[in-house]
Amino acid sequence: MTISIPTSKIKTTNSNITVQNVWEAKRLISSVVKKTPLIYSKAISKQFGAEIYLKYEHLHESGAFKFRGAVNAIYQLTDEEKSIGVTTFSTGNHGFAVALAAKKLGIRSRICVSEHVPKAKIDAIKSLDAELEIFGNGQDDAEQRCYQLEKEQGLTVIPPFDHPHVIAGQGTIALEILEDLPSINCVIGGLSGGGLLSGIGLVMKNTNPDIGVIGVSMEKGAAMNASLKAGRPVSVVEEPSIADSLLGGIGENNQYTFNMVKQFVDQSYLIPEETIKKGMAYLYKEHRIVVEGAAAIGVGAILDNLIPVKKDSKVVIIVSGNNVDTPVHANSIKQYL
Ligand SMILES: *Cc1c(COP(=O)(O)O)cnc(C)c1O
């Protein structure tokens, strides 16, 4: 069961985004985005003979780490762009993050989501002053609608992951982790479009190429995993998952995250639905937190021995968000309590 952390494959060139950009993002967003706690998990650590920490990214005002990238991207707009407003397509958390960031800056936002986005996320977006548009069957339809709005109304599209300012914003997570745990050996995070692990991977690999960076996705419809295997961005059929925030494609014309994930992520694992639910139940029981599937997938994967943990190593798991319908959460965890 014990396997060493995968050997790194650092290549710090071939990307226009640098660690300096991440520091710039940190400075820019610090008045709005609060540092999140890094929590030592006594329960998991004891079980695996390692030091396991949880990065509580579900504690953001928007309920997920996507607030970092959204605030950075919006703060970087020109005054003219701000005066017209922004739009985005999203599986939910990014849409909510953009809506909240726009509200804080007092600018117009229009959020396009697909029909698959759960009610909790829709309600959350509506509760802000954002305009909401439910459009199409998947993220690709919602995306097309956004670019139509850009043409028709001049709104700036803030993409959920494939954008330098978004990636740099998510990278600030890694700066905070390094501040709290400079001797970290490995970080594990949910992998969908790859903004999260592009940003974190950029900072970690440039700090120490031996720090492992591991991505976890649901078993079915994991576009980044399929793309890594194919060697180019490919689309996959979307299927419902308890980790709904990990659904969606990476874009056929992916500019940044595909290459960055290829460079900085050492391993990409596919995780069954039941394992994700076990992770949600465990975090509720042992840490008294309510988190969505995408946020519990790393914990579930470790508990089910799907990701090897090296003895005595220091591992950080990103607990990425909390936007889950209460009945869905209750139903998912009850068999594992
Ligand atoms: C978006 C999201 C992820 C995955 O981030 P990517 O940048 O798309 O890879 C993981 N967890 C939650 C809660 C998210 O909202």
UniProtKB/TrEMBL annotation:
<keyword id="KW-0663">Pyridoxal phosphate</keyword>
<dbReference type="GO" id="GO:0004794">
    <property type="term" value="F:threonine deaminase activity"/>
</dbReference>
<feature type="domain" description="Tryptophan synthase beta chain-like PALP">
    <location>
        <begin position="30"/>
        <end position="321"/>
    </location>
</feature>
<dbReference type="GO" id="GO:0006565">
    <property type="term" value="P:L-serine catabolic process"/>
</dbReference>
<dbReference type="Pfam" id="PF00291">
    <property type="entry name" value="PALP"/>
</dbReference>
<dbReference type="InterPro" id="IPR036052">
    <property type="entry name" value="TrpB-like_PALP_sf"/>
</dbReference>
<dbReference type="GO" id="GO:0003941">
    <property type="term" value="F:L-serine ammonia-lyase activity"/>
</dbReference>
<dbReference type="GO" id="GO:0009097">
    <property type="term" value="P:isoleucine biosynthetic process"/>
</dbReference>
<dbReference type="GO" id="GO:0030170">
    <property type="term" value="F:pyridoxal phosphate binding"/>
</dbReference>
<comment type="similarity">
    <text>Belongs to the serine/threonine dehydratase family.</text>
</comment>
<comment type="function">
    <text>Catalyzes the anaerobic formation of alpha-ketobutyrate and ammonia from threonine in a two-step reaction. The first step involved a dehydration of threonine and a production of enamine intermediates (aminocrotonate), which tautomerizes to its imine form (iminobutyrate). Both intermediates are unstable and short-lived. The second step is the nonenzymatic hydrolysis of the enamine/imine intermediates to form 2-ketobutyrate and free ammonia. In the low water environment of the cell, the second step is accelerated by RidA.</text>
</comment>
<dbReference type="InterPro" id="IPR000634">
    <property type="entry name" value="Ser/Thr_deHydtase_PyrdxlP-BS"/>
</dbReference>
<dbReference type="InterPro" id="IPR050147">
    <property type="entry name" value="Ser/Thr_Dehydratase"/>
</dbReference>
<protein>
    <recommendedName>
        <fullName>threonine ammonia-lyase</fullName>
        <ecNumber>4.3.1.19</ecNumber>
    </recommendedName>
</protein>
<dbReference type="InterPro" id="IPR001926">
    <property type="entry name" value="TrpB-like_PALP"/>
</dbReference>
<keyword id="KW-0456">Lyase</keyword>
<dbReference type="GO" id="GO:0006567">
    <property type="term" value="P:L-threonine catabolic process"/>
</dbReference>
